[in-house]
Amino acid sequence: MHGRKRRIGRREEAFNWVYPLKFKPVYKEMIWGGRALESLFGRKLPSSRIGESWELCTHPQGMSCINNGIWQGKTLQEVIEQQPETILGKAYAGQAQFPLLIKYIDANDHLSIQVHPGDEYARRVEGERGKTEAWYVVDAGPGAEIIYGLSDTVTREIFSQAVASGAVEPVLRRVAVCPGDLILVPAGTVHSLLKGVVVCEVQQSSDLTYRIHDFNRTGPDGKPRALHIEKALEVISFGEQPPLNFTQDSITCSYFSVRKWQVKPLVRDYSGGHFLVYCILQGSGQVVGNGVSTPVQAGETVLVPACLESVEIMGELHLLRIQ
Ligand SMILES: [Zn+2]
To answer: Among 129, 173, 211, 321, which one carries the catalytic annotation?
Structure first.
């Protein structure tokens, strides 16, 4: 009996500590990056070419550090290792990693034309997860476009000839985007964010990118950045391309769901025993969970631990709800 009591006591103590978590962004300088996060969210950026801001991640290339409450200064990895089920939910028992990577991307210039592998290829060849991703378009200048899949009837042969002859752009599908668009990019889809597009990206926690074309640019060392044509050809999905239904309000795939939400003045949200993430896009307010009120504003990302069965969101907010 004594042992059982102590176990319950410890669990209660752990629960008492848990609250909605905020994080320090991890900035990535890129040759195509810019300063959009400064103008959109009032961020202080460490350099003039910030391409990515990793908001929520436990990846070897970037680690989120908690920036509020009693766990301030701890990494998300440390907290998950101590209590994976409390943070991630029962479905993730024994996992030490956050399964998603959430970031903002500022395409101040074109990103490379690229493709990501699916899980099977990524595990077999690279020992990593695959990478299916989704974009919410936060900002897009007039005429802004993305590359999203291949033109109709492009076969592997046509595509590899186009790449070999340096004329890859005509075989790609170029599509206009507007702020508010929500786009699923399944692994295997050739894609690129072109100049003037800022997105919030939700993806599997993976950093595997195969570059197909880099607009003949040079990297920071003055040399062209590496291309990965052979691997790209092994993972590209030829045939039917993803549909162009960008005005959808939500996306669900095997790895995550993303939903656009307007809050005014109050919403109660239920976790279903699974972690919840809010990316605050506009406005300000509070996320209240376990008696702790966490102030939030545009540009911030909040992780609601799975053990908090419900939270209240108050204020006037436009956000992405991610699970
Ligand atoms: Zn990508």
So the answer is: 211
Return the CATH architecture of domain 258-322.
Sandwich (2.60)
Which residues partner with 213 through β-bridges?
113
Summarised one tens digit per residue, pLDDT across range 116-169 is: 999 999 999 999 999 999 999 999 999 999 999 999 889 999 999 999 998 999
pLDDT digits (tens, 9 = 90+) for 211-251: 999 988 888 888 988 899 999 999 999 999 999 999 999 99
Average pLDDT, integer, range 303-321: 96
For residue 194, report the distance from its CA to the centre of ligand 1, in Å. 12
Q: 211 an active-site residue?
A: yes
- Centroid of ligand 1 to alpha carbon of 139 (angstroms): 17
Ligand 1 centre to CA of 138 (Å) is 16
Q: Where in the chain is the domain with CATH 2.60.120.10?
A: 2-255, 258-322
Those residues whose C-beta lies under 8 Å from the C-beta of residue 102, and which sit 6 or more positions away, are 54, 55, 56, 57, 200, 201, 202, 203, 277, 279, 301, 322
CATH class (in words) of the domain with range 2-255: mainly beta
**Centre of ligand 1 from the C-alpha of residue 284, in Å:** 29
